[in-house]
Structures are given as structure tokens and as C-alpha cells.
Amino acid sequence: MGSELAELLEAAAVGRFPSPDGGTTVLPQPGDRDAGVIAFTAHSVVFTDEDPRWVRGILAALDCDRLAATMHPRFLGALLERTGRSMDTIDLLTVASPLAGAPPLRLTELTDLAHPREARARQRRDDVRVWAADGGVVILGRGVAGRWEAAIEVDEGRREAGLGRALARAARHLAPTGQPVWAQQAAGNARSVRAFQAAGFRPVGAEALLLAP
User: How far apart, in whole angstroms, are the C-alpha atoms of residue 191 and residue 185?
Assistant: First the structure.
């Protein structure tokens, strides 16, 4: 992936995390699109092209637990205003190792018909591919720092039947050989959190992505 953030993510994917020293690492953006914050256990990473001195000054001025400072609404609000970006939510960041062989789920790759979820994915990822199952879709593409990211969607009438777990697990078969698969879930989306964890995705931190205008 070729950036400081990419190297950090590659290490985190195999369980090597930043030292839990209560500190914050400020890194340059891996590209024009990707900026944000990742909070690991007792250590955060802010990836932005803004002046690191400005970032640290805002964090130091916050009247809050320093372990929570990078995800504090006042810090994120200041970062959004400074960069002119927007954001959706703070997500749970998860990762899983790839699985060999074809997915044990009948899938059809969509090449001509754009799925609504695909259009959203292309705003945040490169090399997006979409596969449909009976009652849902799985999406794979290259996101932050070139990492492979998965997303799924299950039709309302097919929920609570294990399809979400099967789609999330299928993403691990669809990833390129040797590449971990990352996925973000909104913390309040308990169905999605359960599905990805049941499919072998393990939590590594919290992530707030800043979306380019």
C-alpha cells in the first residue's frame, strides 16, 4: 500500500498495534480522498494533511479524558471545519484474514446493473466489485490506504436468517490472496456488528472518516 498509514494498518491486521501509551500519532493522508481518525486501544492515529501542530493544539485544549480526545465531538467538529469535509458516523473498525477457495454461497457478479450500494461504495473505494446472492449483496473495493474493504446489504425480508453472516464470510473468500479484509460497522447497527463478528471479523478500533467535498 506504500504509506505510513498503510504500514500501520498492515501491522494491526496481524495484531501488532501502536503502543497503548495514551498518545496520538499524526500522519499525512495516504491520498487526497482519505482523511480521518482511527482510535486503537489507548493510542490514536489522525491522518490528515493539516499541520500536526494545529492538531495537537486542539487536542491539548480539550477538557476531557485524553484517551477519548480524538473521538470527542469538539475535536472532530474542529477538524471538519478546518478541512471543509463531512462525515457520517464513528464506526467500529474490524478485520479478518482471507479464506482460500470459492465462497460457499451462490453469488453472481453484477457487471452491467449498478446497485445503489455500489454507487455509494465508489465514492469511498477504488476497484469496486459487487456480487449478488438471493436476498443480498456483498461489495469489495480498495478503501483507506489501499486496504481491501467489504460491505454487505441484506434485503429486509431475509434478515435474522444468517445471510448477513454468510455474505460477510464470502468477502473473505473474494479478497485477493494473502490480503486481509477490513469492514466498518456503525456501532449502533447491532445486526451488522453481529454478522461480521460471526463471520470471523475481529474489532481493532474505532474509525471516523472525513469525506471529501
Answer: 9
Question: How many C-alpha atoms does 104 have within 13 Å on its Cβ side?
Answer: 7
187 three-state secondary structure: coil
Q: Do 94 and 106 touch, CB atoms closer than 8 A?
A: no
Residues in Cβ contact with 34 at an 8 Å cutoff, skipping those fewer than 6 apart:
47, 143, 144, 145, 209
In the chain, where the domains are located: 4-92, 94-201
CA–CA gap between residue 16 and residue 57 (Å, rounded) = 28
pLDDT tens digits, one per residue of 131-176: 999 989 999 999 999 999 999 999 876 676 789 999 999 999 999 8
Q: Which sign, positive or negative, has the C-alpha torsion 117, 121, 122, 123?
A: positive
| Fold of the CATH domain 94-201 | Aminopeptidase (3.40.630)
CA-nearest of 122, 205, 112, 105 to 164 is 105
| pTM score of the predicted model | 0.93
